[in-house]
Amino acid sequence: xxxxxxxxxxxxxxxxxxxxxxxxxxxxxxxxxxxxxxxxxxxxxxxxxxxxxxxxxxxxxxxxxxxxxxxxxxxxxxxxxxxxxxxxxxxxxxxxxxxxxxxxxxxxxxxxxxxxxxxxxxxxxxxxxxxxxxxxxxxxxxxxxxxxxxxxxxxxxxxxxxxxxxxxxxxxxxxxxxxxxxxxxxxxxxxxxxxxxxxxxxxxxxxxxxxxxxxxxxxxxxxxxxxxxxxxxxxxxxxxxxxxxxxxxxxxxxxxxxxxxxxxxxxxxxxxxxxxxxxxxxxxxxxxxxxxxxxxxxxxxxxxxxxxxxxxxxxxxxxxxxxxxxxxxxxxxxxxxxxxxxxxxxxxxxxxxxxxxxxxxxxxxxxxxxxxxxxxxxxxxxxxxxxxxxxxxxxxxxxxxxxxxxxxxxxxxxxxxxxxxxxxxxxxxxxxxxxxxxxxxxxxxxxxxxxxxxxxxxxxxxxxxxxxxxxxxxxxxxxxxxxxxxxxxxxxxxxxxxxxxxxxxxxxxxxxxxxxxxxxxxxxxxxxxxxxxxxxxxxxxxxxxxxxxxxxxxxxxxxxxxxxxxxxxxxxxxxxxxxxxxxxxxxxxxxxxxxxxxxxxxxxxxxxxxxxxxxxxxxxxxxxxxxxxxxxxxxxxxxxxxxxxxxxxxxxxxxxxxxxxxxxxxxxxxxxxxxxxxxxxxxxxxxxxxxxxxxxxxxxxxxxxxxxxxxxxxxxxxxxxxxxxx
Length: 726
What we know:
Blueprint: E1 14-15, H1 18-23, E2 52-60, E3 82-90, H2 95-105, E4 107-110, E5 124-132, E6 135-144, E7 150-160, E8 177-178, E9 182-188, E10 195-197, E11 203-207, E12 212-219, E13 233-236, E14 248-250, E15 254-259, E16 264-269, E17 274-283, E18 295-304, E19 311-319, E20 322-331, E21 337-343, E22 358-363, E23 369-373, E24 383-387, H3 389-392, E25 400-402, E26 409-414, E27 420-424, E28 435-438, E29 460-466, E30 478-483, E31 489-494, E32 500-503, E33 512-516, E34 523-527, E35 535-540, E36 546-551, E37 580-586, E38 592-597, E39 603-608, E40 647-653, E41 658-664, E42 673-683, E43 706-714, E44 718-725
Parallel strand pairs: 11-18
Antiparallel strand pairs: 1-2, 2-5, 3-4, 3-6, 6-7, 7-8, 9-10, 9-12, 12-16, 13-17, 14-15, 15-16, 17-18, 19-20, 19-44, 20-21, 22-23, 23-24, 24-25, 26-27, 27-28, 29-30, 30-31, 31-32, 33-34, 34-35, 35-36, 37-38, 38-39, 40-41, 41-42, 42-43
């Protein structure tokens, strides 16, 4: 007889002499054997016929070990403290005699692990003795804990033959079925949650026709994990097998397969798009083991097409504390073209909107979109949201949203261990953390990975970047700028175990950060933003030692309309004409782009090459240019210098040599939007949509050629951060 169940419960029923067996079970207490006294003491309903002395050998396994491959001999929970035998029917006993027999001869046998009766250290083998009448005996065998909770059980008929113990007759084997108290479903989809536990009514996303396998596990009433055999019967949408590996077709174009041996089920939406309902149930072998539990969980399964290649996600600010995310396709070439646009739908899956007041975002390696949503303060401190890849193009109707440790997060980075770090804005108050880390499953990671206000009191973040894995920096390390914005700044490389490499320098003032991985050892690039103390600094990332630094000169660097003078890049001069850097971006090929504010109050972007000298590539990208010599009208401003400030909100390298700039120029200005530049070519500093009639610096000099503009897309709303998926 085969039974599905958790841990094989082997029973050996052998005919032995009563006295010796009962003496060998000194560690267990049970109802006394059938009285052999005078007939006048025997109740009228008692059975007085012959009995066979029998022995049950019960093996109790230890708690399961995930790494163990040993097949457990039985499912009897390690919390078992007693075995209860009950005769249900007998071929030679009347019902009244069965009742009397259970009272007088069967019942509870205490089990004490590590005793003489149950020696060992796990698994334990316990020897128990009972008497049974010859014939066909239907017996219920129940393993229970100290609270009399039934942990596993079986009901089975044994044919008991009268004989002697030496004959070794009446040898039986049975399997106890587990009594499941809880059911847990888990999966590792790779989309937004990594390994996760499925919740009731949750929607599980995937991409296209990608199949996901779900694992089902159980615990008994003692809280012990149940291992097979002896497991419940797993049913998914009414199916209990895989239909000869073909699966079953369910509503929603869902293919469903169930594997009882592994207690798993696999789901696939065969059309690659849509949502299907999934009903999961676990039940015992009803009618054979006497158990009656039923564990159920309903969830949904959703598939959507993978995000397109060359997809650009752009945050657009729509109000003082609101925004949206638009999606563009980008075709790169001699001219870079922006394709069709769609808007990511905002939903509220429980913890908060997945698109609220987005400030930074990125794509992870699966194509999921990770968003740092800002907050306006109590009660809204912002959140982290992950939009699964398969949901991006289908309306973003599922998301993972977290609010723990948020205080208006402005930076988001993806670590080399698939963790995510978020940086809160400067002057984060109270006990809020300047930076914190989410594990690869997008849940709060250990406290050792967090930088708190206790570590650096009163400081916030102006730079955050993931650090490449090395012998010095374990996977999941991040470099963070913690600063008060003026007098105190540190660059801290935080490791997952809590250790740090702290980099300090007189010219590190609220720097933004990047890492050049094109050189060995890698270099940390930190561009500061403090007037005369605004420097670009290059550090050996392994040791923290300074490699190179120079001031970020304002446009006074140029003395005529075509050629920078010999001091450019300005690596020797210093003074109040320095540009205050606020964004640093480093390409995979080692080009460094720095955005900052000049003395005119308007921005420039300067690009440095990938040589050891870090020469400036042409002139700056001059968003501070005026249309005439000494004029007051700025090329890129909606209403000149008196109008809304021109702001570079993001720099992103979308290839090793193409730089995307997110530029806000105020309102519906024709110059507001997304710019792409090819740093391997030089072109006119000011081109459409800016005025092409003139392009002059604050000293009246015409700007020299700068990295060539190869693409532009106008935006009505203010563009903030961008993310590019190749």
